[in-house]
Each structure stands twice: as structure tokens, then as C-alpha cells.
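Whiteboard transcription, Tuesday session. T.W. wrote the C-alpha cells on the left side:
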């Protein structure tokens, strides 16, 4: 069966439970041929998701917070027509602002969710110490272990998307998108990937590279445009994340489509190289000031 089937939408109890916490989704905007940008949430919680055309069908790259699922459903139905849906969801990584809505959407549309093979252990929604980031170690893990076992299990079950997740091919191919490749960009998470279309130099970076500085309070609150690596406090291995930025620069991208911030089309490669050098210096200073954090995993 072709990946570009058009499943019929069916109601999900999830949307009824989350009516009170629905997040706004922006109007769709085409940023390149067959690539449409939408943003779920506003202010510091804004996260980008993309619809990508291939042939007569569409797929989605990242899908926003859990609370944006209902709004994403409505926006996609409005764009594609009632009863139509993407044929698959491709995640750059499993973090709640990029994968939170994946379970609800995939079950409602009856479609698969793809992640890098190294990301699969995170799909069950459980805390995994060897995959943890500074924020996990400082806040999330202590909070989870303070909860009664039953409450913790309920939270894990709510975040579990293992029933809909599949691993991307190890070859780098993207099922149903022959013009695209999945480029491993580990660091922010162990299995983070970027999605690359070489024919026009379009690079979807997830959190490997963003165009708003999430490492400064001003950047987080004001969303001031600024090319940046991922926030160090939610990054699993900061050294690897910088190596991934250099790897992306070597591709020669002409348009960045980030997980946070606006697309960037001016001087992409030299700015990526300069950013990696700057981030390296800044993070070494931060590590000295914090007594060794952030540390590479």
C-alpha cells in the first residue's frame, strides 16, 4: 500500500479531554515548493511544524505540543479538505514541544510516526537516565520520583507513543519522500535528525539549529531573531550538538526551516560555521561558571 493513502479522520477521546488546554496554531504559510509552515503555541512555547508534499499526498514533520493537537487537526483539515490527512508524521526528535501531539494525531489519522532508531527507547514516555539532559536531572527526575507510583505510571502512559512509532530506515531514506534524506544530528537528543532536500538546499533542523536564541532569557521571552544551537539545559550532549551543526554546514543549505523561529535564507553556511565557533566559546565559559555543567553525556 502506498504511504500516500488518505485515511478518514475519526474522533478521539483525547481531543474531548484537552478542550480546555488547546493551543493556537498559526495560519499555514508556504516557505518553499511543497513545504508549508505552521507554528503551534505563542511566545516562549511556540514550536514549528511542517507539511510537506510529495506527489499527490502530504506528510507532517514534527507536530507540536499535546495541547495543540486539536488545533493542528483543524488546521490540517482546513488545508487538505475534510476527511484528508497526512500519510505519516516524521519527528526530528522526541521532546514534548515537537512530539507531544504525535500520539493523538497518529491514532486519529491512523498513520505511522517515524523517528531515528536511536530515539525509539524514548517513545515509551519513561525517564531514561542515560538519555537525560540537565533539566531532567535537576527538575524532572526529582519531581517524578516524588510522585506515588500509580501517578507516575499514569503520566508515562499519557506520553507513550510506542504503539504508533517506527524507526526510520538506517539508510537515511525518508519513506514516501524520495527527494528527502534524514540526516543524523545527535546531541540535543541521541536520535535527533534533520530533514534535507538537496535539490533546493532546504534543511529542516528541528532543534539542532534554531533561529531564536533559547540560551538567553531575552531570546526566550522576546523571540528575538538569532541563529543558535539548541538550549543547553535541554540538550543531552552539547559537544555532539556542536559537531552536528558543523555537519549541517557541510551540506551547504540555502534555506533553514527550524523547529523554533523563522526560516532563514541569508548567508546560511557562513552563519552556521560562525555560530558553532561562538557557541563553543560561550559554553566553555558557562561550564566553568557552573562547575562543570553542562557536561557531555
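and on the right, the sequence the group agreed on:
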Amino acid at each position: 500500500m502506498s504511504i500516500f493513502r488518505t485515511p478518514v479522520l475519526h474522533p478521539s477521546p483525547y481531543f474531548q479531554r484537552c478542550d480546555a488546554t488547546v493551543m493556537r496554531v498559526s495560519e499555514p504559510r508556504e516557505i518553499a515548493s511543497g513545504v508549508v509552515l505552521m507554528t503551534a503555541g505563542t511566545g516562549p512555547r511556540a514550536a514549528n511544524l511542517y507539511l510537506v508534499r510529495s506527489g499527490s499526498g502530504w506528510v507532517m514533520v514534527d507536530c507540536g505540543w499535546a495541547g495543540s493537537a486539536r488545533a493542528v487537526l483543524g488546521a490540517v483539515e482546513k488545508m487538505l479538505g475534510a476527511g484528508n490527512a497526512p500519510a505519516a508524521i516524521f519527528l526530528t526528535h522526541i521532546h514534548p514541544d515537537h512530539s507531544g501531539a504525535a500520539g493523538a494525531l497518529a491514532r486519529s489519522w491512523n498513520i505511522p510516526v517515524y523517528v531515528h532508531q536511536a530515539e525509539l527507547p524514548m517513545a515509551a514516555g519513561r525517564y531514561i537516565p542515560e538519555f537525560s539532559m540537565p533539566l531532567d536531572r535537576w527538575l524532572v527526575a526529582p519531581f517524578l520520583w516524588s510522585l506515588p507510583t500509580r501517578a507516575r505510571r499514569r503520566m508515562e502512559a499519557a506520553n507513550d507513543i510506542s504503539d504508533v512509532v517506527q524507526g526510520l530506515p538506517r539508510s537515511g531514506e525518508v519513506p514516501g519522500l524520495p527527494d528527502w534524506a534524514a540526516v543524523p544530528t545527535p546531541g540535543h537528543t541521541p536520535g535527533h535528525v534533520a530533514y534535507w532536500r538537496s535539490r533546493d538546499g532546504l534543511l529542516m533542523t528541528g532543534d539542532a539549529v534554531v533561529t531564536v536564541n533559547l540560551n538567553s532569557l531575552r531570546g526566550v521571552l522576546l523571540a528575538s531573531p538569532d541563529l543558535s544551537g539548541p538550549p543547553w539545559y535541554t540538550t543531552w550532549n552539547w559537544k555532539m550538538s556542536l559537531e552536528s551543526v558543523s555537519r549541517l554546514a557541510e551540506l551547504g543549505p540555502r534555506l533553514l526551516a527550524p523547529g523554533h523561529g523563522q526560516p532563514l535564507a541569508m548567508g546560511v553556511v557562513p552563519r552556521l560555521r560562525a555560530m558553532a565557533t561562538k557557541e563553543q566559546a560561550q559554553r566553555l565559559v558557562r561550564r566553568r561558571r557552573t562547575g562543570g555543567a553542562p557536561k557531555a553525556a
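Someone added at the bottom: The chain has a mean pLDDT of 87.
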